[in-house]
Amino acid sequence: MSIIEVVQYVLITNPLARSDDMRLIYDVYKVYYPNIDTLEFKSIMYYHKKLELPSIASIIRYRRVIQREYPELEACDKVKEARSDLEAEYHLKFKK
After folding, report:
1. Is the dihedral of CA 62, 59, 4, 48 positive or negative?
2. What are the tens digits of pLDDT across the range 21-48?
3. Predicted structure pTM score
4. What are 54-58's contacts with CB under 8 Å, separation 24+?
5. Are 87 and 64 a contacting pair, CB within 8 Å?
């Protein structure tokens, strides 16, 4: 499965992951490396390439793409509002 397929699978099967990127990352990593619970956090972060885990940025980027395309997989309203506020703040701060 490709990264985008795994992210979409997790968003479909775990509604809590739609509103929580850390939960989403964990669940995606669990698909790629089912024994991830046996590793220390430091090992996961240091050796994610060796473990063939996708980058956190890629997971979040694909979550955005999927949630834009499939509204039924969006986050809860509170989280959507917070994400929208952060995006607006970013655009104001870095406006050209």
Report:
1. positive
2. 999 999 999 999 999 999 999 999 999 9
3. 0.82
4. 54/3, 54/6, 54/28, 56/25, 58/3
5. no
